[in-house]
Amino acid sequence: MALQAQIVGWGKYLPSRVLTNDDLAAMVDTSDEWIRQRTGIIERRIAAPNETTAEMALRAAQDALRMAGISSRDIDLIIVATATPDQEFPATACILQDALGASRAGGFDLSAGCSGFVYALAMAAGAIAAGMSRLVLIVGVEKLSRIMDWSDRSTCVLFGDGAGAVVLRGGEGPSGILSTTLGADGSGGDLLALRPKVSDDPNGRGPYITMDGRRVFKFATRVMPSAVSQVVKEAGLSLSDLQLLIPHQANQRIIEAACEAMGFPMERTFSNLERYGNTSAASIPIALCEAAEEGRLADGDLVALVSFGAGLSWAAALIRWGRAERVVWY
Ligand code: ACO
Questions:
Q1: How many whole angstroms separate alpha carbon 3 and alpha carbon 326?
Q2: pLDDT class for 323, splitting at 50, 70, 90?
Q3: What count of other Cβ atoms lies within 10 Å of the Cβ of residue 291?
Q4: How far is the CA of 39 from the centre of ligand 1 (A)?
Q5: What is d(CA 216, CA 265) in angstroms, rounded to the nearest whole number?
Q6: Pairwise CA distance, residues 174 & 93, whole Å
Q7: Which has the higher per-residue pLDDT, 58 or 322?
Q8: Using the 8-state DSSP alphabet, how is residue 197 labeled?
Q9: Contact indicator for 53, 143 with CB cutoff of 8 Å
Q10: How far apart are CA 151 and CA 272, in angstroms?
Q11: Kind and range of the H or E element at 260?
């Protein structure tokens, strides 16, 4: 029988510096009222200038391993989902592997924008079911402040930095990842992209994010309901069976519109974006950690994760929360 990937540990890391809407209003032509009304965001965290993506990943990963009660030497695969690695290579996953002393692990980075963490979850679930990996560490981490155009009010108010991690272990049901779906539409790639640094830029910007917010909004509210419906249907269940929906934390209005389109109640949806903004690949694992910390996940609960982002890409996963009846060790 194929093993199911079960989440046995989770952790998060948020930098200590808080950037409020009022702070941003002192930098660009915006206001706390506009940002709250249009996005739901009140503040976000910003990494220290010398704080790296790999360091944030390490803090979240250590938390997750501690909770799982697992030694880093037992991990056999590390996947780091990020759009903001410290450098193109070596992979953040390899830097993390070394810092953790995960001497038996292979590692690679995964680039799927804000969908990266759910993509990584699907890859890990597949590797576990295929018997290729036994214990997998996944981290979603971003230092988006590094690629922000701090003069562009239409993007700089939206994003934040942070990291979230989970440890997955193979076990025999009933808990674990039940189904996943991945999607991509590269024809929309230009709607959300990283522009390269140009030497004569009057604003002296490094590489920076550009986005067509309105079209990304429409895309998100279209793909989220269909992705959630798909994973629920594939597991032979229905939307009403879901105890919790953890959507990508980009914009409260996107979450509300997607829930309305699905006929899914907002009170069964988790949101923490008012405190962190959009942390891209880190948003879902951070939200998952906080949902668990707040007691919103009980053994046996069905929880769906759904994300969308650069690519364009989207992904969803359906999880039966809880530990395995019989943990499989090798
Ligand atoms: N403060 C004040 N005014 C602003 C700001 C701001 N920060 N930003 C834009 N405006 C203005 C615009 O210039 C525009 O003015 P105009 O009417 O005079 O032209 C007006 O506000 C309305 O702009 P819209 O873009 O239509 O505003 P909208 O309600 O669509 O909200 C937003 C913009 C918040 C960006 C929204 O479109 C959105 O959330 N889109 C999705 C973005 C997203 O989720 N991106 C992440 C993808 S995930 C990843 O992979 C990174």
A1: 11
A2: low
A3: 20
A4: 8
A5: 23
A6: 30
A7: 58
A8: P
A9: yes
A10: 26
A11: helix 252-262
User: Taking every pair of C-alpha atoms in the chain, what is the biggest distance, in angstroms?
Assistant: 61
The pLDDT, as a whole number, for residue 201 is 78
Residues 6+ away with beta carbon under 8 Å from 291: 244, 246, 270, 297, 303
Query: Are residues 217 and 163 in contact, defined by beta-carbon separation less than 8 angstroms?
Result: no
What type of residue is 250? A
Query: pLDDT above 90 covers what percent of the chain?
Result: 92
Q: What is the pTM of this model?
A: 0.95
What's the one-letter identity of residue 262? M
- 279 conformational bin, left if phi > 0, alpha if psi -120 to 50, beta if neither: alpha
Residue 329 has pLDDT above 60, yes or no: no
Angstrom distances, CA of residue 150 to CA of 144, 154, 205: 11, 10, 9
User: Whole-number mean pLDDT of the chain?
Assistant: 95
Q: Is 227 in the pocket of ligand 1 (CB under 6 A)?
A: no
Contact by Cβ (8 Å): 119, 182: yes
Owner of token pair 């230092």: 143
121-135, 202-216, 248-262 — which is least confidently predicted? 202-216
Residue among 217, 221, 273, 308 whose CB has most ligand 1 atoms within 8 A, to mutate:
217
Token code pair at residue 241 = 């069976």
Q: Is 113 in the pocket of ligand 1 (CB under 6 A)?
A: yes
- Asked if residue 15 has a cis previous peptide bond (ω within 30° of 0), the answer is no
Rg (CA), the chain: 19
- C-alpha span between 17 and 44 (Å, rounded): 8
CA 203, distance to chain mean position in Å, is 30
* Residue 283 beta carbon below 6 angstroms from any ligand 1 atom: no
